[in-house]
Each structure stands twice: as C-alpha cells, then as structure tokens.
Amino acid sequence: MTEQLPAIIFLVPFFAAVMMPMIGMKNQDWCRPVALTALAVMSVTSISMYAGIVSHGPISYAFSGWAPPIGIEWIADGLSGLLIMMVSLLAFVTVTFAGPATPAGIGGRIPYYYTLILLLISALSGIVMAGDLFNVFVFLEVASLASYALVGLSGGRALISAFRYLILGTLGAALYLLGVGYFYAVTGTLNMADVATHLPELLKSKAVMAGLIFMVLGLAIKMALVPLHGWLPDAYTDAPDSITPILAPLVTKVAVFALIRILFWALGAKTVIQDVPILLIVSWLGAIAAIVGAFLALSQTEIKRLFAYGGISHVGLILIGICLGNQTGFAGGVFYLINDAVMQAVLFFIAASVFYRHGIRTVTDLVHIRGQMPWTTAALVIVGLSMIGIPPTGGFFGKWYIILGALDAGNYVAVAAVLAATLLTLAYFVKIFEYVFFESTSVAKHPASEIPGPMKFSMGALSAAIIILGLVSDQVVTLILEHALPRGLIT
Amino acid sequence: MGQIIDIWLSRPNLITFILIFLWGLYIMIAHHNLIKKLIGMYLVQTSVIFFFVTISAKSGATVPILFDDGAMQPVQYANPLPHVLMLTAIVVGVATLGVSLALVIAIYRQYQSLDEEEILSQRLE
What we know:
The complex is a heterodimer. Chain A has helices spanning about 5-25, 30-55, 80-105, 110-130, 135-150, 155-185, 190-200, 205-220, 230-240, 245-265, 270-275, 280-300, 305-320, 325-360, 375-390, 395-410, 410-440, 455-470, 475-485, and strands spanning about 60, 75. Chain A is mainly α. Chain A has a domain at about 295-490. In chain A, strands 1-2 form a two-stranded antiparallel ribbon. In chain A, helix 2 (about 30-55) packs antiparallel against helix 3, helix 6 packs antiparallel against helix 8 and helix 14 (about 325-360) packs antiparallel against helix 18 (about 455-470). Chain A is globular. Chain B is mostly helical. In chain B, helix 2 runs antiparallel to helix 3 (about 35-55) and helix 3 (about 35-55) packs antiparallel against helix 4. The radius of gyration of chain B is 21 Å and the shape is elongated. The interface of A and B includes residues 142 and 157 of A.
C-alpha cells in the first residue's frame, strides 16, 4: 500500500477535479465540500507518506511496473515528501479561507473555480514528485494552464494580466522543453537519476551547457526571477482575492523546487559545485532578485502588488540559500521556501480580508482597519515580523541558516544581499505598520467587524504555523539535513 | 569561416529551427495584435517540436518492434521516444492555444478591440 501513495496523492485531487463540473451541474453547493474532502484526504495521505519516508526511506514509484530508467519514475524522498505536505496542507487551508470570498470575486463560476484549483494542486504534486525531465514539463504546463485560467476567471482587468502571463509562461515552457531536448540529444535519457550518471563524462559538450541555460531560463520565467518577473505583479494584483492566496505561495515555489531537482538531482551536486558555474550564476540572480524585488515593493501603493513584489524578493532569498553549495545553505533555503509559502498565503489572506470587509485596496487606506479587525491586525503583525526576520518567527530562522551557510561558503555577497533585502523588507513593513498603527487620521468608529469564521480559522492557523515553524525550526532543519539533502553536497 | 558555413549548411533543419524560433519570438514581442502574438507563441512551440523531430530523425530506419528471430538490430530503429514526447507536447500546445483563444475572446468582448495599445489605454481610464 505505502508504495502506491505517490499515485494516490496525485489521483485524489485529479479525480475530484474531473468530477467537479458534473457535481456542479447537479448542485453547486456540493462543490466546496467535495473539494475540501479531496484536499483533506490528500493532506492526510501526504502526512502519512512523509512519516513513512522518514522511517523507511524514499519511495520510487515506477508507472505500470516499468522499472526506471525505461519507465516513468516518480520519486517521493525526504524533499518531495516535505513539499507535498506543504502543498496539500496550504491548499486545504486556502480553499477553506476562500469559501466566503469566492462567489463575489468570480461571478458565480463556482464549479470551474474548484475544478481549476484541484487541477492546479494535482499538477503541482506531479511536478514535485516527477523524477523525469519531460514529466516536469507536462505538469508545469498543466499547472500553468490552470493558473492562467484562474487569474482570468473574474474577467475585466484580470484578462489582460492573464494573457500576458500566458504568453510569457508559454515562452518559458518552450525554453524549458528545448533544454530537455538538448539533454535528451546528448544523454539519451530523461530520467533524472540516469541523466546524473551519464553527465559527468559529457560535461565538455556545449549542448549540455546550452540545454542547462535554456532549462534555467524557462524555469526562471515560471518562478518570476528578476528580470523575468514582469508577469507576476499584474497577474497577482488582478486575480480574484479567493485565488491569489493559492497561486502566490505555491506556483513560484514549486518552480523553484523543479530547479532544485534539476540542479542537484539531474546534474548532481558534484557537477554543479565543481564543474559548472551554474550555482554561482543563479545565486547572483537570486541576490539581484532579493534586492530589486524588495526595492520595487517599497514604492507600491496597492496592497496586493506590494505583497507580490515581496514574494519576488523572497524567491531570490530562497535561491541564494540553495545555491550556496553547502548543506547548511541548502537546508536553510528549503526551510525558507516552506516558510515563504506560508507567509505568502497569510499576506494574501490579509489583502483579501481587508477588501472583503472594508473594500480596502491601497496601503494608505489601511488606517481604517485600526481597532476594527483585531485578528487581521494580529496576523499582519506576525507575518510582518516573519517577513522582516525577527525571532521567534520562521522567517528569522530561515534567514539565519542561509546566512550561516553563506558564511561557511565565504560568500559575503550573499550575506550582504540577504541583509539588504531584510532592511528593505523592514522599510516596507514599517510603511504598512505606520498606516495601521500610527497615522493620525480621524477614523470613523464603526462597530468592530471581523471576517467570517472560515477566513478567521485559516488566517489564525497559518499565523500560528509561522510561529510554530520558528519554534520547531531546529527539528525541521534536522529533518531536512537528514532526509532531504542531495547526494554529494559538502557539509 | 568557410568551414563554419559548411557546418551550418550541412544542418539545414537546425537553421530552420533557429529561424522559426526567433521569428516567433519577434512576432510575440513586436506585434500589438493579440492574435498575432498568439501566432508567434505557436511558432515558438512548433519550432521546439520541429527541433525534437530533427534530432530523432534517421534515414533508412525501421519500426521499433522486436521480432522473435532477432533479425532486427536496435541500431536500425528510429527512436520512438522523441516522437511520443512531441505528441504530448502538441497536446499541451493545443490546450494552451485553447485557453489563450478563450482569453482573447473574453478580452475582445470586454474592450471591443484586439490591439494591445488600445486595450491598455482603455484600461487606464
């Protein structure tokens, strides 16, 4: 049974997605319970799978019994198990949150909303578990198609943003596929583990370098790495409020995960550290993204756009950690990736809540939530502290391990970039806090109007998760160090 | 220099691939019409498919079926895998085109135009 879990985790949301239009035709009220049930089953299954991985070692799932490298392989190891758990739990919490806000934002297209969300989640779990370069492409495209449709679901302004996202995303996918073609032409295999065994003797080939560049470029578009981030702020600002919290934490982070898989599993840690300067290039790009993203966030007035730029900056921080080439940095990067996913979800929960209750879209209007929304304000404070990196939140420990790794590697540019991004993050959160707490405009006193129960539950759960991640950071990082490290990474 | 040109001319398919790819990219960037952008996007996708077919093409090859008498040699087979991959990639491309055309129709209903400049000027109002 346990060896079938990867397929079950993928198939539960997938079947629910396929069933959703039929259920919606029968009765729209059933869509939400069915979607939540599917995601709950997926979450429970992924937790039990991760427990199994920790105690019994990684699962390699060979489709239709064809052993890899001939057949298609899915890998559920310490890293993908962790990520699957993150994806399914966040999806469950986010769909719970989106309940009350959904119908208004998307004009009654309820069955389609749940279909696309579930399709997105199943495709993301496919990317996370894929052990094969082409499989990553297919699931990347399924996930992207679902996200284009989700961004454009509400119509109006969002359509243009969705169209731009589609054009750029498809270009990214084409570049990635081209890179896969180069790799296949050189190595004759698509299985990542098999590529890793063939590559060391082929490193002189220019085709490997070209293929690597194309793949990294394609994934960089998908993860909105500066300067290829053009699609993200518009898409996330214009997407409906019930959809941004699910796109922002998951889509870019899973693209980062695909890059980790390719760099450290398909190429191998030894290759990327010693033979190819790709880690250096990506970490420089990450440093630029961390600073530029935070800098652009500073000048934003719209709440959602500000948070979107914050997300761009944090993708850079994750890449810095992962590309340091040592265990501490890698573990810090992965830990920060998980933290960042939770933080992004809470940030867009807040943006959705203040609009849901008070119709607030801009930072200056945040004065109106003072004394009105204690839960939302508390969540904002917690996530703000975590984004800046103040203990005991998860964000602090993620940055802490990244900086420790950078000091180990003697990479002082990375340390400087993390610190600069931290200062800029502090600056834009001070701006937000100033409007929420200090700005002395006379506020008309309404009776306190808090968000409905499900939204409160989700926001509270994830804010608590930020603190808990901080408190158990030692254990989580130990888990990553023991089970999720690529082979051959130096200590 | 003459040697490089010789190498280029001996690989007309790859030259064609580069031309189609860059042509598609140019159309995507330079044209304001949304449908033309989609045509450019589709050209880029098609050029990648063309690339895969090129690297797996083999003249005088046979079908990849193993007979019991062992008369066939694996060396003679045309590799089926890239072709199968491209069937998947074509399906992905068709799905992308479907979603994008649906988006364009929705944009046209909203703005009564397909010109990007005009849509953006309407959006700013």
